[in-house]
Design a protein that fits this description.
Blueprint lengths: L2 H26 L3 H5 L19 H24 L14 H6 L7 H12 L1
Bound molecules: zinc ion.
Zinc ion (ZN) binds next to helix 5.
């Protein structure tokens, strides 16, 4: 797969995720402006979330946070900074981006970030 094809694939994943998230949020009928007042504190893996384990309000907040991340990632694709780790400036692997297309850190920095947060 060429670099261009990978980029296209990831953009496709992001766009699909964005539409899905907007759909979820609309169903929840909670305004995004309201949600933006709340901080996106963590960097949870949303794919692991289940609708049963979160109450609707928390879930919608998390979805809105993810939507922001997805939109930011789409902008990064546009300006060419997408897929570069925020901390060490190394390229984030394609495999990781496919699993989490709005990832800001590479696997190594992500681990450092997580262990710092636990302290
Ligand atoms: Zn890094």
């Amino acid at each position: 797969m060429t670099k261009k094809e990978k980029r296209k694939k990831l953009l496709d994943i992001l766009e699909k995720r964005k539409r899905k998230l907007i759909g979820y949020i609309k169903d929840g009928q909670i305004s995004i402006d309201q949600l933006k007042l709340q901080e996106c504190k963590d960097d949870l893996d949303f794919a692991e979330m289940s609708f049963d384990t979160f109450n609707e309000e928390i879930l919608t907040t998390k979805l809105a946070c993810e939507l922001e991340e997805v939109e930011a990632a789409i902008l990064r694709i546009d300006d060419g900074t997408y897929g570069i780790c925020d901390m060490c400036d190394e390229n984030i692997g394609f495999k990781r981006l496919k699993a989490k297309p709005y990832a800001k850190y590479c696997v190594t920095c992500r681990e450092i970030f997580e262990s710092k947060n636990k302290e």
